[in-house]
Amino acid sequence: MLMMPLVVALPVSRCRMLTSDSVLPWGSLSLARTLMVTAVSWVVEAASATVTGGVQKISVDLSKGYYDPASIALKAGVPAEITFSRSSGCTGQVISEDLGFSQDLTTGAKTVKLPALKAGRYSFHCGMNMVFGTITVQ
Ligand SMILES: [Cu+2]
Fold it and tell me: Fewest Cβ atoms closer than 10 Å to its Cβ: which of 2, 52, 92, 110?
């Protein structure tokens, strides 16, 4: 979620640049608008887990200082395994009150095993409640 303003900021600033430049045709402006909308929908879209042998699995990378993906889609009624990469500092701990887990990532990647979940939205966050991720089960 922290990344969203940064990702959106690029097309927005590009859009302003094109607006003030009268040399460019109108087509460029609408292209910039399309890029902006595409960037927003890309950020919001959840990453789906892969089902292997009756378990749905997904990995979350923390090398950039935020959860990538920060939005995870899981199927209801199928056990899940979410692997968080090794991390330190702010994201050294990953906690979910909703799902009842707390992991220390400073010593290495950890796999959180979740039972078959009911449909709903569950959140997880760093130890300081500053960086967030969402699991949508449907
Ligand atoms: Cu933090």
Answer: 52
| Model confidence at 12: pLDDT above 90 | no
pTM for the model stands at 0.69
Q: Measure 3 CA to ligand 1 centroid, in angstroms.
A: 14
The set of residues, in sequence order, having a beta carbon less than 8 Å from that of 21 and lying 6+ positions away, is none
Question: Could you state, in order of their start, the residue ranges of all structural domains in the chain?
Answer: 4-44, 47-137
Distance 66 CA to ligand 1 centre (A): 9
Question: Would you say 123 and 95 are in contact if contact means Cβ atoms under 8 Å apart?
Answer: no
Expressed in angstroms and rounded, the spacing between residue 75 Cα and the centre of ligand 1 is 28
d(CA 131, CA 66): 6
Residues with CB under 5 A from ligand 1 (ion): 90, 126, 128, 130
CATH number assigned to the domain covering 47-137:
2.60.40.420
Digit-coded pLDDT (tens) for 24-47:
455 555 545 444 444 444 456 899
Chain segment 43-95, per-residue pLDDT in tens: 568 999 999 999 999 999 999 999 999 999 999 999 999 999 999 999 999 99
